[in-house]
Predict the structure.
Amino acid sequence: MLDSPFSCLLWRPWTSLPDKNEFICFCARLIRIFVFMQKTKITVLGPAHPYRGGLAAIMETMARIFMRRGAEVDVKTFTRQYPSLFFPGRSQTVGTPAPGDLRIVRCVDTVDPFNWLRVGRRIRRERPDFVLVKYWTPFMAPCFGTIARIARRNGHTRVLCQIDNVEPHERHFVDRPLNRWFLRAVDGFVYMSEQVRRELRSYTDAPALFSPHPLFEHFGSPVPRGEACARLRLDPAGRYVLFFGLIREYKGLDILLDAWARLKERGSTAGRKLLVAGEFYTDPAPYRARIERLGLERDVVLHDRFVPDDEVKDYFSAADFLVLPYRTATQSGVTQIAYRFGLPMIVTDVGGLPEIVPDGRAGIVCRPDADAVADAIGRMYAGGALARFRSGVAEQSKRFSWEEMCDRIMELYDRVKAR
């Protein structure tokens, strides 16, 4: 009984009253228990199963962490994410079963304004403490901005955003008005790079907290290199430099191909190959023509397809290091996969990439041009650089935590609630 919130009262005789300090103790314990018993109610709005890719994995992981902390969480995802006409890939969804531990409701159609009204009114009636939105492209702004505005009208629900990008990598004249519609409907933001924070401030002065992109945990653990090579049908006697992820123009695969051609001219590619794994989200013909023109047909192993989650570990276990020769960037989820698998990186000095991969510790930061990338690859293979960078990756990876991300979201919620 002495451990109960009433213990500071119950030990006293019925005829006596507690002193002032004991009474304050009693009230404080009651308040803490009352707050603990009130579950935070959260609606997660964004990609989730059956939609594929890292964005869905992020939202599902955060939902699980909030549930472990005692929150009541539901996930609202898409019935239609992108119209097929506008989607550059082969498929938007996966065929795996839905996760049994999450309540995922497919109810959002990004191109149907009447649907936005219905979903907004539904959230308004459900009265979550906050809606957590994932935002990465202005295409989502009309849908998410409308839902957010309606949901907030109940006077209780706040709208928080975990934001990847403000300005898109491929820009259009409608981006700014679309961004304005969504961003000004949000009560607070968690951002993952300083570039995003700077861009955000041109639209809104809402509270914003920094939390770096956490590590992806759902891809499993590293496997023996020989085993990974066997599954990918790679010669385990060879050495592989990895380019991984959806192939879009801003990611600079052409820069990397030119860099590899320069290394080949120097005689620095013997026994090494460039492993390119990812689905083309742009016309593949110019890349194939470049490979042929540069005489790299035997140097480039091209796996031009979307890599399922259960195969990701093989690519990162087979490779010596990862190269991200991006022309522009905010941050990249691919770096967090590399951290998960202990893989050193070469990144370009654009956006938030140098914040994620500090030069000389977890890898090499260089300019986004072929000569600089070629020099960085040469340095990576020199002396004991790979072993040194692997140690640095292990140390740096401690910075990236899902718990930390969710802590920042709850801190943000406390701030906007108090405003």
Observations:
- The first strand starts at residue 41 and ends at 45.
